[in-house]
Amino acid sequence: MTRTSHLIQELEQANSQLLQSEKLAAIGQLAAGVAHEINNPIGYVFSNLRTLTGYVDVLLQIIDRIDDAESLGELRGMKQRLEYGYIREDVLALIGESEEGIERVKGIITALKDFSHIDETTFQPADLHRGLDTTLNLVNNELKYKAEVVRAYGELPLIDCLPSQINQVALNLLTNAAHAIEAHGRITVRTGHEGDRVWFEVEDSGRGIDPAHRPRLFEPFFTTKPVGEGTGLGLALSYRIVEKHGGHIEVDSEPGRGSRFRVWLPVTQPDEPEEARIPQ
Ligand SMILES: Nc1ncnc2c1ncn2[C@@H]1O[C@H](COP(=O)(O)OP(=O)(O)O)[C@@H](O)[C@H]1O
Ligand SMILES: [Mg+2]
């Protein structure tokens, strides 16, 4: 092996490792968000269960008294004293709210499962909207304080893709959008279909991109974020993923007004590659 090809191989290896670390960073970020999202419903479901335990205790007291009660009047008095009317209403409300909380946790776990096939290498027909919803669900924690999120979905066919990797692209575009917004803004996720291609885009009302930075956006390590906040690898990884799919990314931005990243993807892959590998 010549010295040059050896160097190239080392560079490629270093590059793969970097992309891997961006994935890990994204997963770390995700984990923090998910922990927060799950903690909140678990918190109130737990507190509801405590209250419900108290209510059940009261209801049992009343029922237990039926056999020994001197009179119906006594039971009626007891019902009133123990605020049966209020309990009756609140019980159902608490159960309903708890069910919603559990549903929410279930949703997050389903989304995490979708994300956990992170190293999948087989192209499969997938619903892009589902992927976007999953991703939005997961980054909700990061987005909700920053922006109003608007979904404007078109009609889309299923597309051949590596779903978890497309989710990664969406994740990065969404977090970049959130980072670009200083106080509070709007993030719009749109999709559309043209002939044998589909697209999805993330538009933000953030600070926009300095035209001088435009040519460097997809360079590994290019970041304008402080150390520790940006790796500069998100768009580089996204570029590679989209390229593997035979698609491309369009950028439109106006400093001070916002940016729009549009990802074009083919509906079908030419001939299912046996190993459609994104470097791991
Ligand atoms: N939506 C956006 N608005 C403004 N700037 C952006 C946006 N998306 C990306 N950028 C710019 O591109 C750079 C590279 O993005 P990325 O590769 O995701 O790395 P990172 O987010 O870690 O900085 C960012 O640091 C930022 O300067
Ligand atoms: Mg990024």
UniProtKB/TrEMBL annotation:
InterPro entries: HATPase_C_sf, HATPase_dom, His_kinase_dom, HisK_dim/P_dom, HisK_dim/P_sf, Sig_transdc_His_kin-like_C
Catalytic activity of the protein: ATP + protein L-histidine = ADP + protein N-phospho-L-histidine
Pfam families documented for this protein: HATPase_c (PF02518)
SUPFAM superfamilies according to UniProt: ATPase domain of HSP90 chaperone/DNA topoisomerase II/histidine kinase, Homodimeric domain of signal transducing histidine kinase
PROSITE patterns referenced in this protein's UniProt entry, alphabetically: HIS_KIN (PS50109)
Organism: Halomonas campaniensis
EC number, UniProt record: 2.7.13.3
Keywords: Kinase, Phosphoprotein, Transferase
Top-rank lineage group of the source organism: Bacteria
Record-given protein name: histidine kinase
GO molecular function: phosphorelay sensor kinase activity
Domain Histidine kinase as annotated: residue spans: 33-269
